[in-house]
Write a structure and sequence with these properties.
The protein is globular and about 95 Å long. The protein is of the alpha/beta class. The chain folds into 2 domains: about 70 residues; about 280 residues, no CATH class. It has 9 helices and 17 strands.
């Protein structure tokens, strides 16, 4: 945009000079007794040119300031949701990124639960790190984007959101490079419970407001991942936190993730279920919870009354689909990065995970 403005300024300046020159040449061939008038006209023209030049310089300074305040954004960024306590998970993910030669300078890591905040800054391997005092488990990155969407180290036309408790396969870099999304669109693998792994345009973030700048516990986070809103009628700030599709004007849906089985991924004697997002060649590891109802206490209705979550909220599979009327839900069964043939690998885990799939 600044380039267009500069061209326009140059055109205006050239036009002013041409008009001044025309005035200077208008006295050619006139009687000599009009020469004093030509001299006066020439001085006026020079003064006009000087005034236009000063205006152009002032305008260019304004443009320069605007460019510094609103730098050009990157085409795409890989946004990694993390926590200051989850270093082991993040290290494993980064190792897989390096293994498959993913451009680490395209990564922005948002770490929640920090004692003090630290804005976007360069970290190891050229990655950008942001530390947040917000402690929202799976939604830290969305809080970070709400705060730093316009920062030069963060802003992008497209955001690809994943968690630290993931690892990529060999096709992921191509999927990342080839996926396309409209500014107000979100792409999700299935309709709900995709662990917030999704792709969305920059304008979607503009709709967040302050909805994610709050601590979101596991119970409310599970509801948000289930496609609904969690309301806060007490405390500060009040309001709601919703599934990301509520902030988009268009939603595109690709095939759901595929469960592969359980494995002790982090060698902590806590088996995690491995899920394969086949379209993206991405693996997500989720800690099994024997009683999810423990996460769903002290929930709050919009009118401020407390209640316990119903089964339809914990497992909304049987609940009737309800979407905002202005949300264009687009079912798409397409394959991203068709140049890369997907094959279940899950390197360095348990080779039997992929063998459990009949079509692996």
């Amino acid at each position: 945009m600044s380039r267009t403005i500069c061209v326009a300024v140059a055109f205006v300046f050239a036009s002013a000079v041409a008009q001044a020159q025309q005035k200077c040449s208008s006295g050619v061939g006139e009687p000599s007794d009009d020469e004093p008038k030509n001299v006066v006209s020439l001085l006026q023209s020079k003064r006009q040119i000087n005034e236009v030049a000063r205006d152009v310089v002032s305008l260019l300074e304004v443009i320069r300031g605007e460019v510094m305040l609103h730098p050009a954004c990157a085409e795409r960024k890989l946004v990694i949701n993390s926590h200051v306590k989850y270093g082991q998970q993040l290290d494993r993910l980064v190792a897989s990124l390096k293994k498959h030669k993913f451009p680490l300078n395209d990564c922005v890591v948002f770490r929640g639960g920090a004692s003090t905040s630290a804005g976007p800054h360069a970290g190891p391997d050229g990655m950008t790190f942001v530390d947040l005092t917000v402690d929202s488990y799976d939604l830290n990155a969305l809080a970070g984007l709400s705060l730093y969407n316009n920062h030069s180290l963060v802003c992008a036309d497209m955001y690809f959101l994943i968690h630290d408790s993931t690892q990529i396969g060999p096709c992921f870099p191509k999927a990342f490079a080839e996926v396309k999304v409209a500014p107000t669109e979100v792409i999700t693998p299935g309709l709900r419970h995709f662990s917030n792994q999704c792709v969305f345009g920059r304008s979607v973030v503009d709709k967040f407001g302050n909805d994610f700048i709050r601590d979101v516990d596991k119970g409310r986070g599970f509801l948000v991942d289930g496609g609904v809103c969690a309301f806060y009628s007490f405390g500060n700030p009040k309001g709601k936190t919703c599934s990301i599709n509520h902030y988009a004007s268009k939603r595109s849906v690709i095939p759901e993730r595929v469960p592969l089985g359980d494995a002790d991924v982090y060698h902590d004697s806590l088996p995690r279920t491995a899920f394969w997002y086949q379209e993206w060649d991405l693996y997500k590891f989720i800690l099994r919870d024997s009683d999810r109802r423990l996460w769903h206490t002290s929930l709050v209705r919009p009118d401020g009354t407390a209640y316990s979550a119903s089964e339809s909220e914990i497992n909304p599979g049987s609940k009737k689909e309800v979407f905002q009327t202005d949300l264009a839900l687009s079912q798409q069964d397409y394959t991203l990065a068709p140049s890369c043939s997907r094959k279940c690998t899950v390197e360095d885990i348990d080779s039997t995970l992929c063998k459990r799939r009949a079509d692996a």
